[in-house]
Write a structure and sequence with these properties.
This protein is α/β, with parallel strands linked by helices. Helices cover 37% and strands 16% of the residues.
Length: 332
């Protein structure tokens, strides 16, 4: 029986991935320190006889070494969640690198490892490359070091490199704006969950800046498909398989996203009428430039992994908003 360790496995993607592998006949160990209020071991995804939940941290070097010794397959998702947390706690965000180094020190050539990185590593890409999609080898641009918003992607970039330099067969996936029922609940930290929480409470939907900036949103099942394909690809090779963008490549402005969620929520009877949409809202404790666009280039993932997202944004939003009418999905 294959054995896999998922760090940060009590988070949204981690617990769904754990369930997938368990149902495929794998023995799954989930490691999580439960520091994020949206993470938990009690959700239905982790209620499976082949899943073991361990309350602990990647900062515990001995614990990580022990678990890595027992599990030749590893998915490393453990990470801070949300721009606000990284701005408010730069030291804690930087400390995540220690956890990754602990894991890297425990890796051997028998290990197959996937590192969960982020589209954030591209920084303000569109200010360098115009409207071109973000390709894995592109140059990037960040604001100056006093802007705390960018410490998270800088740490992620270093983590990508140290995992790639390990003796394991490894791969990095850069995840672009995943969405799904119960994500970031009840503590909304990303844009779709924040809009969803506003709809639930009947409050205005608040935009960073004008809302003209574009993002691409992938339903979580498509994201997990990319993760599984990337891990299987790493297992077939030697050393590092490099990085792959995983997500959807159809952009939408944040203002349009808010309008769509408003409209769908009315159509589904979640709210009676569209809620106000407020621009230039102060969402974080420190301002930063948020006028750049984010669109992934999926050519490498399509060609090498056979990855093709299939869930359209409208369907993804409807299935995510439907969670407000099915509390069990939010409690997951």
């Amino acid at each position: 029986m294959n054995k896999i360790l998922i760090t940060g496995g009590a988070g949204f993607l981690g617990r769904h991935l754990a369930r997938r592998y368990a149902e495929a006949g794998w023995r799954v160990t989930v490691l999580d320190d439960l520091s994020c209020p949206n993470s938990g071991f009690r959700g239905p995804e982790l209620r499976h006889p082949s899943i073991e939940c361990v309350h602990g941290s990647t900062l515990d070097r001995a614990a990580v070494a022990g678990l890595a010794g027992e599990n030749p397959w590893i998915v490393h998702f453990a990470s801070p969640v949300g721009v606000g947390e990284t701005i408010d706690d730069p030291i804690g965000t930087a400390r995540n690198l220690t956890g990754t180094l602990n894991l890297v020190d425990a890796l051997t050539p028998r290990h197959v490892v996937l590192f969960g990185s982020s589209a954030d590593v591209y920084g303000m890409h569109s200010r360098v490359h115009g409207g071109a999609p973000m390709a894995e080898d592109d140059d990037v641009l960040f604001e100056h070091a006093d802007v705390g918003r960018w410490i998270y992607p800088k740490i992620k970039s270093v983590e990508e490199k140290v995992v790639a330099a390990s003796p394991a067969r490894s791969v990095t996936v850069r995840i672009f704006n995943c969405v799904g029922p119960g994500m970031d609940y009840p503590d909304a930290r990303r844009v779709v969950p924040r809009f969803l929480r506003s709809i639930e409470l009947g409050e205005p939907l608040r935009l960073s800046g004008s809302g003209a900036q574009t993002r691409c949103f992938s339903f979580y099942t498509d994201t997990l498909d990319g993760v599984e394909r990337a891990l299987a690809h790493a297992a077939r090779g030697t050393g590092s398989a490099g990085a792959f963008n995983i997500g959807n490549d159809r952009p939408v402005s944040i203002a349009d996203l808010a309008e769509r969620m408003n409209r769908i929520a009315v159509e589904m009877g979640v709210i009676e009428r569209p809620l106000p949409i407020l621009t230039d809202a102060e969402l974080y404790t420190q301002p930063f430039r948020d006028d750049w666009d984010r669109v992934p280039c999926l050519e490498r993932a399509r060609r090498v992994l056979g990855y093709r997202p299939s869930v359209e944004l409208e369907d993804a939003l409807r299935r995510t908003i439907a969670a407000l009418q099915a509390p069990a999905l939010l409690d997951a």
